[in-house]
């Protein structure tokens, strides 16, 4: 669908909010907390490029969607296009809403941990839980006050127990998360969204403190780009008879799309499983949170958006 950009607000030096409405003023499709939109970015550059942005607005608000976009200066250009090219009055091509990070039903207590732009789906969750009179607390971590979006909205949210943790170093952050997460009781659910380092630390803490896996929910932001220690690798497409090189700072998904191979994809963070590709052979480095340990041991599938390989990877494509 096409949505009209009704308003743009600068939330922090690097985060902008975009309010999107139906051009005819109609109600927008319903969604559940944790849902996201896929936005077509950088149109006119050949292949379609999309980015997923969490819905911040309350699910009860059906006449306007709100998303927030972090300007990732070392990224691939999608967030820069959103910040520099999109203006009030423009129309954006949108897919969704879709949800790979839903709230658990019938939770007794919900503990939300947000880091940076990870506040976006958790604010939506907090709004919904508070409106239902649920027991909800949110712990918001940030380098400094200036980079923490939506602080006023959080403080105004009646029924939310809010804790802000600002300027903590790594050691202090880990100790604070240990206290925030605590031990799980029956009916407790933990939700974590933020940078990979924070998310990994929180999941490790939750596991060590006895949280059952079914009571821990998370969404990883910023996981799709390569790291300094990543090495290039080669992909052979057995059915298509193609050979593709994947660069150090390139994902397998982007290498396939750039070579004209149509691969379904959505979250670009290894969460939803949309970009699963069949593996014939190869040494896989799984970085997703979708596949089970049994799936990984089988070695027959991988998430193209985040996982990598060593040497030569043969796909049954």
What is the compact description of this entry?
The protein has 317 residues and is of the alpha/beta class. Helix content is 20%, strand content 34%. The protein starts with a strand and ends with a strand.
Following the backbone from N to C, one meets helices and strands in this order, namely: EEEEEHEEHEHEHEHEEEHEHEE
Shape type: globular
What structural class is derived from the secondary structure elements? alpha/beta
* Spatial arrangement of strands, main beta sheet: 4-3-6-1-2-5
At CATH level 2, the architecture of the largest domain is: 3-Layer(aba) Sandwich
Describe the structure.
With 317 residues, this protein is α/β, with parallel strands linked by helices. It has 3 domains: 2-98, Translation factors (Elongation Factor Tu (Ef-tu), domain 3), CATH 2.40.30.10; 109-220, 3-Layer(aba) Sandwich (Rossmann fold); 233-315, Beta-grasp domain (Ubiquitin-like (UB roll), Roll), CATH 3.10.20. It has helices spanning 78-84, 119-131, 151-155, 170-181, 196-208, 252-258, 293-298, and strands at 2-12, 15-21, 36-41, 49-54, 65-70, 91-98, 109-115, 135-142, 160-166, 188-194, 216-220, 233-237, 242-246, 276-285, 301-303, 308-315. A 6-stranded antiparallel sheet has the order 4-3-6-1-2-5, covered by helices on one side. A 5-stranded parallel sheet has the order 9-8-7-10-11, with helices on both faces. The model is unreliable at 223-228 (pLDDT under 50).
């Amino acid at each position: 669908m096409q949505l009209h950009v009704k308003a743009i607000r600068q939330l922090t030096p690097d985060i902008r909010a975009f309010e999107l409405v139906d051009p005819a003023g109609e109600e927008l499709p319903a969604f559940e907390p944790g849902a996201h939109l896929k936005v077509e970015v950088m149109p006119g550059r050949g292949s379609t490029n999309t980015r997923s942005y969490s819905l911040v607005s309350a699910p009860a608000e059906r006449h306007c969607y709100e998303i927030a976009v972090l300007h990732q200066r070392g990224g691939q250009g999608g967030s820069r296009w959103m910040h520099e090219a999109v203006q009030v009055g423009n129309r954006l091509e949108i897919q969704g809403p879709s949800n790979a990070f839903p709230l658990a039903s019938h939770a007794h207590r919900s503990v939300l941990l947000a880091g940076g732009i990870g506040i976006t789906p958790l604010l939506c969750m907090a709004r919904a839980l508070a409106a239902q009179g649920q027991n909800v607390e949110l712990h918001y971590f940030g380098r400094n006050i200036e980079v923490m979006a939506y602080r006023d909205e959080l403080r105004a949210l009646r029924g939310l127990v809010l804790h802000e943790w600002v300027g903590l170093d790594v050691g202090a952050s880990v100790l604070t998360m240990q206290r925030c997460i605590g031990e799980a009781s029956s009916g407790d659910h933990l939700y974590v969204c933020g940078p990979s380092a924070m998310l990994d630390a929180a999941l490790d803490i939750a596991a060590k403190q006895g949280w059952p896996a079914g009571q821990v929910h998370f969404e990883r932001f910023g996981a799709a780009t390569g790291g300094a220690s990543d090495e290039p690798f080669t992909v052979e497409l057995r059915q298509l008879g193609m050979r593709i090189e994947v660069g150090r700072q390139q994902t397998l998904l982007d290498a396939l799309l750039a070579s004209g191979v149509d691969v379904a994809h959505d979250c670009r963070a290894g969460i939803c499983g949309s970009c699963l590709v069949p593996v014939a052979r190869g040494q896989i480095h799984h970085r997703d949170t979708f596949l089970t340990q049994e799936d990984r041991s089988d070695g027959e599938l991988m998430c193209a958006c985040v996982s990598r390989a060593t040497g030569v990877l043969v796909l049954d494509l």
